[in-house]
Amino acid sequence: MWPPKVCVGMALGMCPKDKLYRGYIDLEIQLREFDRCRILYEKFLEFGPENCVTWMRFAELETLLGDTDRARAIYELAVNQPRLDMPELLWKAYIDFEVSLGESKKAKKNYECLLERTLHVKDSTEIRTSISPSSAVELNTPRALANYATEAVDLQDLLYVSQVWMSYAQFELASADESNVELARRVYERANLSLRGANEKEERVLLLEAWREFETQHGDESSLNNVIKKMPRRVKKRQRVQADDGTEEGWEEFFDYIFPEDEATKPNLKLLEMAKAWKKQQQTNDEEKEGEDDDDDSNSSSES
């Protein structure tokens, strides 16, 4: 009869599977062979470097063993992978890790890095999860991490940039800084400007609703009214529907959001467009005039 470790090792050699790797690692943990666990995690990640749960479990093991520097290095390697199956889940674990260590500056830096990547890359395979600065106790065991990952996968929602911004604002609000309310407000202001520039209307509505709730609880009448003035109107519109071959199939109705801030800038945009048109017309007139002058000079020369 082969020993269990030998059987599992042979099985991995013939047919490497996630379940086999996890079972082998759990066996080594029970035997307290932590160096063997590290080797297995490294092999596991060579087999599937996009697997966020594996990265998190590896970092969690190092955290439980008290090697926070090694755990941080694992998180850094993980978030810099070219492709990840659940990046938001991984970033949440990384942020919660820094919060649990009292490293608020590093946690804040992670939020900024996450926002920078989220704003530039929106892959349909990425999954939105609730990224809140909750206690790291919620994710303090490999089993808890696995359960959390399963719940996140079941969501099957697309990534919402507004969720990251709102989580960042909650993080600032929960900080021990005396100006925590103002710091959170600045995050909401930055978020609104960012989503406005990206024309992310639905996400902007979600953000403004959260901002309004924030000002209701922590702001004053002036700050609350400032947000209320930014809230959009929901209007019904119609648009033509075209088939794949280009033929028209009629009209369809949809809802759009009209933001007061955007409406206020429209007159200025019109003036800018008129100014550009006038400048272009002036250039055209000048070119035509120069052409006429050249023709006159040519005629004068021929007559001479």
From TrEMBL:
<keyword id="KW-0508">mRNA splicing</keyword>
<keyword id="KW-0507">mRNA processing</keyword>
<feature type="region of interest" description="Disordered">
    <location>
        <begin position="278"/>
        <end position="304"/>
    </location>
</feature>
<feature type="domain" description="Pre-mRNA-splicing factor Syf1/CRNKL1-like C-terminal HAT-repeats">
    <location>
        <begin position="19"/>
        <end position="109"/>
    </location>
</feature>
<dbReference type="InterPro" id="IPR045075">
    <property type="entry name" value="Syf1-like"/>
</dbReference>
<dbReference type="GO" id="GO:0071011">
    <property type="term" value="C:precatalytic spliceosome"/>
</dbReference>
<protein>
    <recommendedName>
        <fullName>Pre-mRNA-splicing factor Syf1/CRNKL1-like C-terminal HAT-repeats domain-containing protein</fullName>
    </recommendedName>
</protein>
<keyword id="KW-0677">Repeat</keyword>
<dbReference type="InterPro" id="IPR003107">
    <property type="entry name" value="HAT"/>
</dbReference>
<comment type="similarity">
    <text>Belongs to the crooked-neck family.</text>
</comment>
<dbReference type="InterPro" id="IPR011990">
    <property type="entry name" value="TPR-like_helical_dom_sf"/>
</dbReference>
<dbReference type="GO" id="GO:0071014">
    <property type="term" value="C:post-mRNA release spliceosomal complex"/>
</dbReference>
<keyword id="KW-0539">Nucleus</keyword>
<dbReference type="GO" id="GO:0000245">
    <property type="term" value="P:spliceosomal complex assembly"/>
</dbReference>
<dbReference type="Pfam" id="PF23231">
    <property type="entry name" value="HAT_Syf1_CNRKL1_C"/>
</dbReference>
<dbReference type="GO" id="GO:0000974">
    <property type="term" value="C:Prp19 complex"/>
</dbReference>
<dbReference type="InterPro" id="IPR055430">
    <property type="entry name" value="HAT_Syf1_CNRKL1_C"/>
</dbReference>
<dbReference type="GO" id="GO:0071007">
    <property type="term" value="C:U2-type catalytic step 2 spliceosome"/>
</dbReference>
<feature type="compositionally biased region" description="Acidic residues">
    <location>
        <begin position="285"/>
        <end position="298"/>
    </location>
</feature>
